[in-house]
Amino acid sequence: MTPSDALPREPARSGGPAHPPPPATAPDDPAPPADGTAADGTAADGTPGDGPEPGPPVRLAHREIVTVLSGLVLGMFLAALDQTVVSSALRTIADDLHGLSAQAWVTTAYLVTGTIATPLYGKLSDIYGRRRVYLCAIVLFAVGSLLCGSAGSIHELAAWRALQGLGGGGLMSLAMTVIADITSPRERGRYQGWFMAVFAGASIVGPLVGGVFAGSGSLLGIAGWRWIFLVNVPLAAVALAVTSRVLRRIPNTQVRHRLDYGGAAALTVGVVPLLVVAEQGRVWGWASPAALVLYGVGAAGLVLFLVVERRMGKEALLPLRLFRTRSFRLGTTLHFIVGIGMFGAMTTLPLYLQLVKGMSPMAAGLAMLPTTVANVAVTLTVGRLMSRTGYFKVHLVTGVASFTAAMVVYATLGVDSPLWHVALGMVFMGAGLGAAMQTMTTLAQSEVPRQDMGAATASVNFFRSNGGTVGAAAFLSVLFSLAAGGIGERLTAALDRPALRRLAEQPADAEALQGVVRSDGSVSLEDSAFLDSLDPRLARPFLEGYVDAMQVTFMTGAAVMLVALVIAAWRVPNSRLSDA
C-alpha cells in the first residue's frame, strides 16, 4: 500500500468513476505547511511546535503491518532475551561475584530504571518520532550490555543493569505504542499476540543460551557468564539496522510536549526508597530506623509526584486524566498485580530447579519448556479469537485464574517432588500469561483517545514494570529471609545427631561448610556452590529450608493473584472492542 492508500477517497458520483485522491507526501519527507512550521511540528526556529492535530488513525495493509512488526519484535526479542538469559544464569553469576542473597538487585535495578524511563519514552516519541527514540533505546541497551560484561561485583553489575534498563524500557513500550498507532482496538490483539510469542520464544532460547554460557568455564579468555551480556552487542547492531529501515514506514506526526522532569524526579524519590526497603528489609528489620526513614521518603516522594502531575496537566509524565477512564484504570491495576506474580515466579522458580533439584542452568532452562509451549499456543489462539469476536473478558479471567492455579501448584512443591509436578505448574503459568498479558494491554488501550496512546501505553508498561520490580524484590527478600532462619534451625537439629556430626567433621564436608555455618549457628547464603560438593545427608537441611521458604513465598503470590482474579471477574465489563 502506498501512503495515498491511507487517505480518504472521494466517493464516486452516479454514473462515473471515483475521483482519484490527490498525491500524498511520503511520511519521511513531508511538505512544509504554509505557516512556517515543518510538517513534523517543528517551528521555523527549530523548537518543537504544536504539530498537526491528530487525524484519523493511519491504517496500513496487513503486509505492511507485518513488515513493521518484524522490526519491532526484533527489538523486543533483544530485551526479552536478556531477561530470560540472566534469570537462568543468575545463580552462577551470583556465586562467582559472591552475592547470592543480593542477586535481587541485578533484576530490580533493570526494572527500576526501565519503570521510571518508560513514561518518558511516550513523551519523547511524541516529540521526536517513534523511530528516532526507538533507535536511541537500542543504543542505550547495547552500551549497558557491554558494561555489564565487565562488572567486577554484584553491585557493579546491578549498576550497569540499571543503564541497560533505560534502553529496555523503551524497547518494550514503544513497540506496543507503534502497533496501537496503526491498528484498531479489535485488530490489536491479533498483532500484540506476536509480542507475547516473542517473550515465549525468548524463554526457549534464553535459558539455553544462558545455560551454555554459564556452564562453560571461559570463552576466548572471558568468563562464560559474561558472554550473556556481551552477545547483546552484535544482536543490537542487527536490530538497529533492521528497525532503522522498517520504521520509516510509520507516519511521523510529531506533537509538541514539555517533558515532565519534575515528575520523573519525584517518581524516582517515591519508588526507589520503597524498593530498597523491599530488598534490604530482611537484613535491617522491617521496622528498623533505616526502613522507617525510607518509608517516609518514599511516601513523601509519591505525594510530591501526584502534586507535580496535577500541576503539569496534559503534559504530566503519567497524565492523571487517563485514570478517569475505567478501562485504563482497570488495565493498569491488573498489569501491576499480575506483574508482581509474573516476575516473582520467574525469579524464584529457576532457584528451585537449580538449588533444590540440582539442575545445571541449561537443564533448568530446558525444564521450563512447558511454560513456553503453553504460552505460545495460548497467546496466538487468544489473539485470533479476540480479532474474530471482539470480546476479551473471558480470556482475561481464564488467564488470571490459570496463573493463580500455577502459584498454588508451586506452593505444594517439596524436595522430592517429581518433575511432572513442576511441569504442571509451568503449563498453568504459560497458558495464564499467554491469555492475560495481551488482554490486559488491550483493556487499558481500548477507550484511550488516539492522541494519548503514547502516554497510555507507556503508563501500562510502567505499572507492569513497577509490579515486576516489587515482585522480584519481595519474592526473593521473603525467600532468603525465611530460608536463613529455617536452614539454621534444621542444620542445628541435624548436627545434634552423632552420625551427621561425625560426617560434618570429615575433611571434604568440613571444607564445604567452612564459611557457611557461623559460630553462632546461623548460616550465610551468599554462595550456594558448596551444595554441589556437600554430602547429600548434610545438604538435606539446606534444601528443606529453601523449599519451606519457597512454599510460603508462592502461597503469598497466590493470594496476590487472587486479588487480580476478583478484579478481572467482577470489575472488568464484558464489552466488545471497536473496529475503528
Structure description:
Residues 1-58 are annotated as: Disordered. It holds the Pfam family MFS_1. Residues 18-33 have a biased composition (Pro residues). With 580 residues, the protein is mainly α. The protein has two domains: 62-248 and 317-483 and 556-570, Growth Hormone, Chain: A (Up-down Bundle), CATH 1.20.1250.20; 261-316. The chain has 18 helices and two strands. The protein has helices at 62-96, 104-128, 130-148, 154-182, 185-215, 227-230, 232-246, 261-284, 289-312, 326-356, 361-367, 369-389, 393-411, 419-445, 453-495, 498-504, 507-513, 536-570; strands at 218-219, 222-223. It has a two-stranded antiparallel ribbon with strand order 1-2. α1 runs parallel beside α5, α2 runs antiparallel to α8 (261-284) and α5 runs antiparallel to α14 (419-445). The longest helix is centred in the C-terminal third of the chain and has 43 residues, at 453-495. The protein is globular, with a radius of gyration of 25 Å. The two termini are 19 Å apart. Residues 1-55 have low confidence and may be disordered.
